[in-house]
Amino acid sequence: MKITCKIPLLKTLPLILAMLFTSLLSAQDDGKKIQFGGGIGASFGSNYTDVSLSPSAIYNFNQYLAAGVGLQGSYVRVKNNYQSYIYGGSIIGLVNPIEQIQFSVELEQVRVNSEFEILGEDSIKRNFWNTALFLGLGYRTQNVTIGARYNVLHDKNKAVYYEAFMPFVRVYF
């Protein structure tokens, strides 16, 4: 059974990347008030595909406070077993009480469209919105922050992420 995606992420990926890099180059004159970052990932294996893109931007109010927005999309497929599209956005607040420490609050809203194919049975479709509220703490050095965050709204019955606690690496240029 084939699923059609309402947002063809893989077809729009080059356009999104071009817009992100164009914005990044034009923002270099803003005196680091606006910074861009995000993540891109791809994993391929025998009958397995996982592709993700999550661009983001923050505005630095001063050396202590920043806020921003992000988009994200991912596609995961295990041949003849599972397929999932996840897309949405987030808003983030960052507090740096000292240069090396960063606290974060991130509200994320994503749409999950997944299908499990069970041999000899009808497929199971799960389509839902998932809201996450992450509280994080990280060690910051220059434009890289490494830390962990916890989803205080985690619900195992309706979750995008398996665990509420997760590590992160955040990079802004």
Topology, element by element:
Blueprint: H1 9-26, E1 34-45, E2 48-60, E3 65-78, E4 82-98, E5 101-116, E6 124-141, E7 144-151, E8 165-171
Antiparallel strand pairs: 1-2, 2-3, 3-4, 4-5, 5-6, 6-7, 7-8
Provide a quick synopsis of the model.
By secondary structure, this protein is mainly β.
Description:
The chain is mainly beta and 173 residues long. The longest helix is centred in the first third of the chain and has 18 residues. 16% of the residues are buried. The chain has one domain: Beta Barrel (Porin), CATH 2.40.160. The radius of gyration is 18 Å and the shape is elongated. 10% of the residues lie in helices and 61% in strands. It is built from one helix and eight strands. Strand 3 and strand 4 form a beta hairpin. The N terminus is likely disordered. The chain has an eight-stranded antiparallel sheet, covered by helices on one side. It starts with 8 loop residues before the first helix and ends with a strand.
